Q: What sequence folds into this?
């Protein structure tokens, strides 16, 4: 299948850190359809060869195992082209139309890797230049708006020129192998379904922890914060994957319909739950990996009196027959004590204990998303006999390391998503109504914080966030996975 992939923002950070390495991996694995062109777009005046050289030089920062050899890059570079185009200038789009007309590729992917305030302009100008054809696929990166109204505005503009089936909204967490494994585990095995419900599950924890700070993105982050950057999209998508009902088929809309139902079933916030079930924090100076690090307010691009949250912990509930009363805790933050993303499904204690079990050792299923991709099932087995307590159980766990089992050459998130766009598979992309439902749910939190003078709670960099997050979960009689 011939394709043209037009990369708006072809010289930007996202292009060289994520998109180009992913395209190269697909090329190396032989999964990128042959006969494609990758057309980088920016305002620089570069020839094709200068663009290729720029991309080649950027690969130096990519993981060694994912870096092309000189011969590999030479072959890959044959796909790369550059077009100087100012996205704010309507007449410039005609040159893109001319370039695409040169060969009438079967699929034309327009990937918007530019600042979101350009999205509406680009989409309107593509339509004005007649580039919204049935074979056009549009890829949108987060953030799609900063609230429900701005999200709707972008979605309305895009849908006025393209069909929903042509719109690929990226949430790269959905492209992670571990998330696909979650779908495979839930809907490919009969074992878990009967115990995937309130009668057996006591609570669920979703943690996306980063040990990094805001790096060079202080100015962007200060306007965004952890709730918009991580919770509204990635964390809620993980919650949907975990809590959704089995879809009737693997068709994209069958899956997205079920995810939407979860978002619509999230219990609405009340003044009491906003106060007690949401904790926001902001990191101060501390130590990470043995090195002293700055506090958030000292970071470049961040206001010295910033009230932006770098940490959120919250308790959600899903009002459905399957999940009523089961708390779903979400926690995410920067400059935490580790870099890990995991989902922990905790089961209830055995109803009648004839053996002695160590406290807090109920069965748990841990889905590791980062840094490694795996599954752990925590069980109790026979431990040492003890004269006073009789038989004492001991914790053991089954540990499935998918990287080991399937090899480290597995398809990465961006690689998978890009191949899906070219193939027209929408399963792992977010529909506009899902996005809107997620914004509708987080907006009361934003509003509550806006009117709350207390601001975020401080925490030292290199810790697990403010103690209020531990107090929140402890009120239900539980603890975060690293605390138990
Ligand atoms: P960036 O480094 O600032 O790159 C922006 C790109 O857009 C550059 O190639 C820039 O080239 C081009 N551009 C800007 N204005 C233009 C114009 N008027 N006409 C033509 N080209 C123009 O930004 P980024 O970090 O790659 O982020 C891009 C998008 O991805 C943003 O929406 C961001 O929120 C999202 N995102 C980024 C990351 C990440 O890790 N970086 C992660 C997730 C999502 P010239 O200025 O030379 O024209």
A:
């Amino acid at each position: 299948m011939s394709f043209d992939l037009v990369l708006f923002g072809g010289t930007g950070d996202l292009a060289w850190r994520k998109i180009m390495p992913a395209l190269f991996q697909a090329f190396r694995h032989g999964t990128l359809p042959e006969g494609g062109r990758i057309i980088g777009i920016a305002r620089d005046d570069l020839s094709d060869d200068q663009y290729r050289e720029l991309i080649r030089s950027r690969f130096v920062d990519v993981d060694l195992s994912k870096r092309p050899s000189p011969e590999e890059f030479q072959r890959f570079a044959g796909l790369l082209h550059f077009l100087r185009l100012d996205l704010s200038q309507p007449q410039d789009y005609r040159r893109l139309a001319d370039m695409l007309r040169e060969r009438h590729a079967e699929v034309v992917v327009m990937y918007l890797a530019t600042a979101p305030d350009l999205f509406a302009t680009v989409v309107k100008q593509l339509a004005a230049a007649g580039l919204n054809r049935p074979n056009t696929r549009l890829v949108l990166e987060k953030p799609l708006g900063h609230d429900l109204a701005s999200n709707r505005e972008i979605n309305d503009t895009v849908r006025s020129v393209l069909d929903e089936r042509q719109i690929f909204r990226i949430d790269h967490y959905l492209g992670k192998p571990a998330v696909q494994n979650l779908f495979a585990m839930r809907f490919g095995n009969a074992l878990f379904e009967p115990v995937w419900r309130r009668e057996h599950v006591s609570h669920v924890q979703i943690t996306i922890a980063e040990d990094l700070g805001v790096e060079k993105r202080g100015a962007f982050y200060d306007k965004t914060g952890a709730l918009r950057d991580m919770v509204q999209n990635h964390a809620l998508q993980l919650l949907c994957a975990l809590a959704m009902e089995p879809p009737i088929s693997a068709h994209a809309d069958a899956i997205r319909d079920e995810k939407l139902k979860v978002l619509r079933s999230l219990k609405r916030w009340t003044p009491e739950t906003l106060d007690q079930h949401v904790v926001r924090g902001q990191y101060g100076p501390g130590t990470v990996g043995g090195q002293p690090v700055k506090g958030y307010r000292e970071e470049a691009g961040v206001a010295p009196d910033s009230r932006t949250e770098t940490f959120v912990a919250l308790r959600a509930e899903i009002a459905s027959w399957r999940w009523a009363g089961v708390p779903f805790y979400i926690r995410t933050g920067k400059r935490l004590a580790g870099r890990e993303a995991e989902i922990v499904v905790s089961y209830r204690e055995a109803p009648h204990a004839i053996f002695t079990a160590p406290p807090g050792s109920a069965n748990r299923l841990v889905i590791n998303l980062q840094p490694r991709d795996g599954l752990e099932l925590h069980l109790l087995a026979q431990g040492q006999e003890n004269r006073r307590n009789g038989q004492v159980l001991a914790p053991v766990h089954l540990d499935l390391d998918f990287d080991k089992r399937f090899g480290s050459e597995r398809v990465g998130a961006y690689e998978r998503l890009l191949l899906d766009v070219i193939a027209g598979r929408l399963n792992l992309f977010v529909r506009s109504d899902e996005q809107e439902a997620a914004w509708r749910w987080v907006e009361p939190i934003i509003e509550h914080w806006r009117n709350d003078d207390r601001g975020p709670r401080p925490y030292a960099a290199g810790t697990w966030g403010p103690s209020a997050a531990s107090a929140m979960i402890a009120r239900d009689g539980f603890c975060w996975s690293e605390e138990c």
About this structure: The CA atoms of residues 244 and 330 lie 16 Å apart. The chain is about 35% helix and 25% strand. The pocket of NAP is lined by residues 9-15, 17, 42-44, 85-88, 113-116, 141-143 (CB under 6 Å).
